[in-house]
């Protein structure tokens, strides 16, 4: 396969984890006779430093004319004094809108090798395998009017029927390739927008009788994610609730650095680790590249249609973690067992270990 991939390292630890993600892509290409033209662009604080805007026109065109987009991280505290509409993070929101990616997929699974890394008990997290399907282009993040006035501030939560229908259809489609269970999360006992969301999702569910469906209030869902996360298969929810719940669910693994995401449904898919730019540890070589590497696996799967290669990347990551290899973000959770000794490695070393497994004859 020949494909151009837009590569946006971004800010903070972004360039460090992006470097390892790129090595994974290059290894996959070499081992499978693919040709990936990886073209870098700027976004976020790096773009503001260089061009005065968080999403330059050159980056827009690069992304629109690529087969897939990889983004590492955006944001830097030196711009925190600016209004939200002009901060580096706005570049990410604009990019999602530009590409038309209305569905954000955030898988959370816990490999046996990192069960002890979770802040919860082993029995509470063993076997967790869930997918949060978050609506990405509507809701309170995009609703108007919005603003700050003397003595008050306001945002608007708004959804249209078509917006809810398309994300619900996506969730049911994905559930059919998993355990066929969808839980729609809202706050319909308080918010009219959530009541509307619940009505539309319930109607769509009737068109998919082979998939189990239920509605759940967001506060209950937040509790259930801690009390019994194994009960969930696909969680379908709004933009803001999805943002919050996916970060909560990601901590079941012990670190945000372990988890990937995909934003799809539009012209070009956008793939990025869940974590932020973490400028406090930038340049130290301690950042966890696993979320970025698994985002490459999602890029191969959902962006390029390379299922076999995506599975191989996922398996390579699992094999490294099972061996007790960790980055520093998991140090506080590390527990030595009689079977495995925990070994801490740098960002680069973790990437090298995954690449080594991908190069083995039985890996591809």
Sequence-ordered SSE layout with sheet pairings:
Elements (H helix, E strand, L loop, with lengths): L1 E7 L5 H19 L2 E6 L3 H8 L5 H8 L3 E4 L18 H10 L3 E7 L12 H4 L3 E7 L11 E3 L2 E3 L6 H15 L5 E6 L5 H14 L6 E6 H10 L6 E4 L1 H12 L9 E5 L4 E5 L16 H14 L3 H16 L2 E2 L16 E2 L2 H13 L5
Parallel strand pairs: 1-2, 1-3, 3-12, 5-10, 8-9, 8-10, 13-14
Antiparallel strand pairs: 4-5, 4-11, 6-7, 11-12
Would you give an account of this structure?
The chain folds into two domains: 1-111 and 254-364, Isopropylmalate Dehydrogenase (3-Layer(aba) Sandwich), CATH 3.40.718.10; 120-248, Isopropylmalate Dehydrogenase (3-Layer(aba) Sandwich). It has 364 residues and is an alpha/beta fold. The chain starts with a strand and ends in a 5-residue tail after the last helix. The chain is 39% helix and 18% strand.
């Amino acid at each position: 396969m020949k494909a151009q991939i837009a590569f946006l390292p971004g800010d903070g630890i972004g360039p460090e984890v992006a470097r390892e993600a790129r090595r994974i892509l290059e290894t996959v290409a070499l081992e499978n006779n693919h040709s990936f033209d990886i073209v870098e662009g700027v976004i976020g604080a790096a773009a503001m430093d260089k061009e005065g805007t968080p999403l330059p026109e050159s980056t827009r065109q690069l992304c629109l004319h690529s087969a897939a987009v990889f983004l590492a991280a955006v944001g830097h505290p030196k711009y925190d004094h600016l209004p939200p509409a002009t901060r580096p993070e706005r570049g990410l929101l604009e990019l999602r809108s530009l590409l038309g990616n209305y569905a954000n997929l955030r898988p959370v699974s816990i490999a046996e090798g990192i069960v002890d890394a979770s802040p919860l008990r082993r029995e509470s997290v063993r076997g967790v395998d869930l997918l949060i399907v978050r609506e990405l282009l509507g809701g309170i993040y995009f609703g108007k009017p919005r603003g700050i006035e003397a003595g008050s501030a306001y945002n608007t939560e708004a959804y249209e029927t078509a917006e809810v229908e398309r994300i619900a259809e996506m969730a049911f489609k994905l559930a059919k390739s998993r355990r066929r269970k969808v839980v729609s999360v809202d706050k319909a006992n308080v918010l009219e927008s959530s009541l509307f969301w619940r009505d539309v999702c319930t109607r769509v569910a009737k068109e998919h009788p082979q998939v189990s469906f239920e509605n759940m209030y967001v506060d209950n869902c937040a509790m259930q994610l801690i009390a019994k996360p194994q009960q969930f298969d696909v969680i379908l929810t709004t933009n803001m609730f999805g943002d919050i719940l996916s970060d909560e669910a990601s901590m079941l693994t012990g670190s945000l650095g372990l988890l990937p995401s995909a934003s799809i449904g539009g012209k070009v898919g956008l793939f990025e680790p869940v974590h932020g730019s973490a400028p406090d540890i930038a340049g130290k070589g301690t950042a966890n590249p696993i979320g970025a590497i698994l985002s490459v696996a999602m890029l191969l799967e959902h962006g390029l249609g390379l299922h076999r290669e995506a599975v191989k990347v996922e398996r390579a990551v699992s094999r490294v973690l099972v061996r007790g290899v960790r980055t520093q973000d998991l140090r506080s959770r590390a527990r030595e067992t009689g079977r495995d000794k925990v070994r801490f490695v740098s960002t680069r070393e973790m990437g090298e270990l995954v690449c080594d497994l991908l190069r083995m004859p039985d890996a591809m």
